[in-house]
Every structure is written in structure tokens, then in C-alpha cells.
Amino acid sequence: MTTGKQIVAEIGLLLYPDVQLAAVYGLTDLFRIAGEMSRERAGPGAPAIRVSHWRQAAHGVGVECVFDSHPGPAHDPSHLIAPPSLIMPAKMQPMNGLTTWLAERHGDGATLCSVCAGAFLLGEAGLLEGREATTHWAFAKELAARFPAAKVDSDRMVIDDGDLITAGGILAWTDLGLTLVERLLGPSVMLETARFLLVDPPGRTQQPYGHFVPRLDHGDAAILKVQHWLQASGARDHDVPALAKRAGLEERTFLRRFRKATGLRPTEYAQQIRIARAREALELSRRPVAQIAWDVGYEDASAFRKLFQRITGLAPADYRRRFGVAAA
């Protein structure tokens, strides 16, 4: 029952043939522990995460829920996780029912996540085209070969690309789980959960500045289509007439609906996407700031520096000194 708890999200875990059950039950426990930490801080009405387990229906059509941490309300998973597989990707069975459902849920605004070989399910759902993704280093070449339009980077443990989050190694479910806890319950609860579990927090989530988390569950399909395109393209082209055309709307209508759905104007939304990518580049590389500015879409490095400081509270060089993990 949900009495006394504020359910902030439902996270669905996929049960497929040869799935790593340690990850399924480990994530279930991690989210439960995070809920307990949240309750200790805020009392009985504290935010909590609902966890459900899903598998392909026995008759082969559709999916069915086989576990629910908070039974009662109708299901509406805002996040879905494809856990690791215990067998090599080439031997994984076809899962058309699950991958079709993943694509449908993504189209409805759900954030999709994967760990290790779970990224292949996102690829089969047609969701990795033009997107950055990671997987186990041993599977990276196969993922890139099977889905050539994907931008596979096996050097990174977690790639948070807004509506798609992928994690690398078979035990990277802890990194993914804590990343979601930080998103949904806040950094303090995430850190307390990590300490309790005696695991390191994800490096990119230790910083005191919040990451851009786009609103995707607003129900406006035309605007969601544009959001997905902006995220996939790095928001390099955010000309309003072109975005309105992509949405199939008149410009004034597009601007009104975009602001209502996302809370931001298109230019502000594009800036958030670009700065998020710049932050990641500063954390993980030694590229010059001017080069990073150019790579994320800014020709004027001075203007980029001012915008970066306005959004993050730090100049790019100071941000790198504080959070950079790349070798000098």
C-alpha cells in the first residue's frame, strides 16, 4: 500500500531469459533502502520509489507485472531498466514483446535505462540511433556493429543522456541505481544510501550542482518528439521555425506548448543540453575550453564561458579543477 508515502516514480525492471537476477533484486533492494533513508530524513510522508518487475506475457503478446513493491494504484512506469544478461549478447533470445513495449513507453515519456548487455534491448527497440551509449567493454564492438548509428563509448561507466541512461559493466547497476536515486530523491539520500551499502557514489553525481533533467512525462507527444530530437542532436540546431515544423505546429502554438511542457523556452532548453555535454567533457577530458565550446555548438568561447558560469556557478576552468577526473 502507498499510505503515508509519496510515490515520486515507478521504476520497472525487465525480467527476460538469462537476466542477471542479482541486478534485479539488488536494484530492488537499493531503491527500498533509499526509501528508508528518505523516510528517516523526512518522516512517514517522505518520497519513495515504487518498484515493479515485468516480463513478456506467457502467451507471447504484451507484458505482465510479476512484482510490485507498492501494489494498488494503476501502473505507469516512469523509468524502465534493462538489467545485464548472464550470457553473451549473440546468444540472447529475441524479445520482441519487451522491446516493442520499451519503444512504446519511451514514446510516452518514460526514461529508459540499461546495464551492461541490457543496452542491446534498447538497440533492438530502435532507441540508440544517434545516441551516446555505453556497455561492458567486451561487448562494445558488437553493440557498435549491430547498431552502427549508436555512439558507443565503453570508457565511461554511466552515460546520462536525459531520456536514455546506460551503464557499463555487469555490476554497474549500483552506479545506475544511485544515479536514479539522486535524480528522484536528491543527492543527500543518494549519498546516505551509498554509505549504507558501502559502495562509491557515481563520480558525476557527487558535485553540488544539479544536472539538467528534462521533463518528459507531460503527455504532449508533439513536444516530446522535439525533445527527443534535441537530445539526440546535441541541440546544435534549435531554430524555432524548424522545431515548430518538426512538431507539426504553428510557431506561436509551438512556443506556448513547449514552455508549458518543459518549463523552458526552446533556447533555454538547448542551452541546458549543450552545457550538460560541456560539463561532461570538462570532467572527462583535457580538451581546451575553447574546443569544448566549439564542439557543443558555441563559436564564441567568451560567450560560452559566461553562459557556463551562469548555469553552473563556476567558470569552466574552475569546474574542471574541482570535478575533472581525466589525467593531466
From TrEMBL:
It comes from Bosea vestrisii. This is GlxA family transcriptional regulator. InterPro entries: Class_I_gatase-like (IPR029062), DJ-1/PfpI (IPR002818), Homeodomain-like_sf (IPR009057), HTH_AraC (IPR018060), HTH_AraC-typ_CS (IPR018062), INH-QAR (IPR052158), Tscrpt_reg_AraC-type_HTH (IPR020449). Residues 224-322 form the HTH araC/xylS-type domain. SUPFAM superfamilies: Class I glutamine amidotransferase-like, Homeodomain-like. The keyword DNA-binding applies. CDD domains: GATase1_AraC_2. Keywords: DNA-binding, Transcription, Transcription regulation. The keyword Chloroplast does not apply.
